[in-house]
Automatic annotation (TrEMBL):
Protein name: histidine kinase
CDD domains cross-referenced by the UniProt entry: PAS
Keyword annotations: ATP-binding, Kinase, Membrane, Nucleotide-binding, Transferase
Record InterPro entries: BphY/WalK/GraS-like, GAF, GAF-like_dom_sf, HATPase_C_sf, HATPase_dom, His_kinase_dom, HisK_dim/P_sf, PAS
Native species: Deinococcus navajonensis
Residues in Histidine kinase domain copies: 324-537
Length: 543
């Protein structure tokens, strides 16, 4: 996935994660919220979160997704003295990225034997850090080799940071809840801040914690009207809460600043047969924690907005650069063609077979440059076009595109294997361009294959429409498959013809639809180009 486009998608994911984590959540919910976008955004097959236990001597598996039930993985509970990727990431406080299984096995040759599980093909291990202290690790597993782009790495690091902050909030909140429960248990024996008043608002009881909170002795308060002893409370939020509890004969709970000393308190007012019983606790510390968490969320949102703006500026510069190159080369290319024509006219009757081939080659190279310029222009202006999503029958679209490519089939025999393709909601014009490029790649790659076969098929699984184009032509290695959709990154020999900038257009079109593209190959027999789009079930895609 291209880094600029990926960042745009990841920024949306980070905003969604930040919103989901804004309420304080248990650690199992926090890790689940973090893990889902990490897996879906990078195309991972599974993932897990392991946290260091309270004793600080073991890793404990908290959440895992994508693995079969009861299936063994290399990510297991265990002590912290093992030589495994998770422990190394924690000790180094650095993320580890393994783009293929050979890299992982080379560094950890005993891993499969120790865990009794097979290593993933590619994996990412992110330490979850808070203030320099490791809380655990976030791991992702991939079924295919995976090149982790800088944008993907930064996305995962940010997710790990969000996870750490949310876990810290959860831990502090859990501590406060536990403290509150302890206070409730104590209050049952009237040992916390507690007082009672009768129907005339006279104090009938004040415990020692209330004495300390107010700085007043119980002897000085018992039998006296509370509003006369604390006139600053009259008209306050807590004053109104007392009235509501007395008049409505119902329990009233509130959090407010104490009108007596100004601290934040949580208060519960219970009606009784004699009047009201009230207990309260100071929550100033918790409010400070909430304020810090809110500030962190706002700071994170500001940072995401800044990064999004930087990305938009970079995309604008890239578009201008591509259009400028294309414009600057148009006139020189036209002059080359004109000069070749003039030269042929001048040498008419003197051009032998060898010189004729040279003229033909010059024109062919000029044509190829012209095609590359057209593809650069398409790449530059692609994002300007607003998506016009509509329900599409993919089989009809593929048949139409195949018909358009008939000129490439002259003198060739190609067996087409069209499966039962699903429906999608997408921009018809842009998706037609995608299939035109994918099928053209397959035709180019099989042009020297005696029994060429091209398969187009798809499926719907877990809310995603997946479509692939598989051919038995020029083989694609795993390394080439990782870069095939990058501009100017793959040798022309991979396609059996020229280098194809159009595949970068394919990636950007699919990304704008919220999907992904990738390729697979074993370096021996052909290749497979895959496109995955969200199943919108008739909903409109956004541009």
């Amino acid at each position: 996935m291209a880094e600029p486009q990926a960042r745009t998608l990841f920024s949306d994911e980070l905003l969604a994660v930040g919103q989901a984590l804004n309420p304080i959540q248990p650690q199992e919910v926090v890790t689940d919220i973090i893990l889902r976008p990490a897996i879906s955004s990078l195309g991972a097959v599974a993932g897990a979160v392991l946290l260091i236990n309270a004793q600080g001597d073991r890793l404990e598996l908290i959440t895992r997704q994508g693995y079969e039930q009861d299936a063994k993985t290399i990510w297991q509970d265990g002590p912290l003295d093992r030589h495994i990727p998770a422990i190394d990431a924690i000790e180094r406080q650095q993320p580890l990225f393994f783009e293929d299984s050979n890299h992982l096995k080379q560094l950890y040759p005993q891993l499969e034997e120790e865990t009794g599980a097979l290593s993933p093909v590619a994996t990412a291990v992110l330490p979850i850090l808070l203030g320099g202290q490791a809380l655990g690790v976030l791991v992702l597993d991939f079924r295919e080799p995976h090149r982790f782009t800088p944008a993907e790495q930064q996305f995962l690091i940010t997710l790990a940071f969000q996870c750490a902050a949310a876990l810290d909030r959860s831990l502090q909140h859990a501590r406060l809840i536990q403290q509150k429960q302890s206070q409730v248990d104590i209050l049952e024996s009237i040992s916390d801040a507690f007082y009672a008043v009768d129907a005339q608002w006279r104090f009938t009881y004040v415990n020692r914690h209330a004495e300390k909170f107010w700085g007043r002795s119980r002897e000085d308060l018992i039998g006296k009207v509370c509003w006369e002893e604390f006139p600053q409370a009259v008209g306050s939020e807590s004053y109104q809460a007392h009235l509501n509890a007395a008049q409505g004969r119902q329990v009233v709970r509130l959090e407010a600043r104490s009108p007596v000393i100004g601290s934040w308190i949580t208060m519960t007012i219970n009606p009784t047969s004699q009047g009201l019983s009230v207990y309260f606790a100071d929550i100033t510390e918790r409010k400070a924690v909430d304020a810090r968490a809110s500030e962190f969320a706002r700071a994170l949102e500001r940072r995401v907005m800044e990064r999004t703006q930087e990305l938009q500026d970079l995309n604008a510069e890239l578009r201008a650069y591509a259009i400028g190159i294309s414009r600057d080369l148009t006139e020189p290319l036209r002059r080359v063609n004109a000069f070749v024509g003039l030269l042929e006219n001048r040498l008419k009757g003197q051009v032998d077979e060898r010189l004729g081939r040279m003229f033909t080659q010059v024109r062919e190279e000029a044509r190829r440059v012209g095609e590359r310029m057209d593809e650069l222009r398409k790449l530059a202006v692609l994002e300007r076009r607003e998506l016009r999503a509509e329900p599409l029958e993919l089989i009809q679209l593929v048949v139409q595109v195949r018909s358009d490519l008939e000129p490439l089939l002259k003198g060739r025999k190609v067996t087409w294997d069209l499966g039962t393709l699903p429906r999608v909601t997408a921009d018809a014009l842009l998706l037609r361009q995608v299939f035109a490029e994918l099928l053209a790649v397959a035709l180019d790659a099989t042009q020297h294959t005696s029994q060429a076969r091209i398969e187009v098929d798809g499926e719907v699984r877990d809310g995603w429409v997946r479509v692939w184009v598989r051919h038995n032509g020029v083989a694609l290695t795993p390394e080439q498959a990782q870069r095939i959709f990058d501009v100017f990154q793959v040798s022309p020999a991979v396609f059996g013809a020229d280098e194809r900038i159009g595949l970068a257009n394919v990636r950007r079109i699919v990304a704008r639809h919220g999907g992904q593209v990738w390729a697979t190959g074993d370096g021996e027999t052909g290749a497979c180009l895959v496109m995955s789009l969200p199943e919108r079930r008739g909903e409109s895609a956004t541009g």
